[in-house]
Amino acid sequence: MSGCSASEAMRFGWPEGVTPEAEDMRHLWTWSVIAALVMGIIVWALTFWTISFHRRKGTGKLSADEEFPRQTAYNVPLELTYTAIPFVIIAVLFYFTIIVQNSVEAKKSDPKVVVDITAFQWNWKFGYRTVEMGNGQKYEGFLRNGSPYEEQLPRENKEGEEVPLPANGRDDDIRNYLKFDRIETVGTSDEIPVLVLPVGERIEFEQASADVIHSFWVPEFLFKRDVMPFPKQNHTDNRWQVSSIDRPGAFVGRCAEMCGTYHSMMNFEVRAVSKEKFDTYISYRAANPTATNAQALQNICETPVSITTHPFDTRRSTDGTTTPQTNGDANNTSIPGCTVGAQQ
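-> structure tokens emitted (344 positions)
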């Protein structure tokens, strides 16, 4: 208890989210804990009442009638009540759980932003398929479906025999579920990918893996979903939405599924910005296809690199400039004294 702040205690330890879905889950958790505490108090009260008022008193001998308190075994109305009450409690909890689950998993047909997520060992690629701009125009960024290994040249072993490509040499076309967009951000070993998203807009994510099972997890979303290869063959729902991100800021993202040697380094960052900044960001990247994501972030006066997580190697730096404490404020990612769109 001493490790909790007042706000955390009021949430009964539930993390603070940044989406309406996360808030719905918090309400469910809070009232579930309250219901559990009420039941606990009743059970504790009955227990202490029993051991306090039905214990052996004194040292004298008791008659047979005084040996045990009045028994209520085979009291049909009482036993029916004891059976019915748990069923009512479970039914109420089940009802509200389904309501919240349906809200969290709801998908509407008019998301303002559609993001393609591709997970691979051991990083992330983010692409913008469609964006509804503030001026009413719609940006269409989808390029093609395809395989990440299409441009990989065949390899040969020492005997001159061709070595099969990934997927055990199966036809690369089997990976035509992967999306390629005109505007993409790809993480590397030296740079954490930053996924820029607008606040106050419905956003849809479609995710897929190029190799093994990964998991897309942003703790502040209070939501995670496994990123599967071959989603159709695996009968998985690889689309999900958030109705909005409630505030600007930087939020760390992680792979939450053990996916191999460098799983722990497979991090990313969600950078939530105002709608105006986001539209400027998309316009800049569309007009400057060779510009880096860092340059586009600087153009909207945002810190150009991740401030919530770091590439693994930079943590070993001895110059003191790449530690998490000196990388920036996750709640204020704007560059002071900067003019949005100055580079356009």
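The first strand starts at residue 113 and ends at 120.
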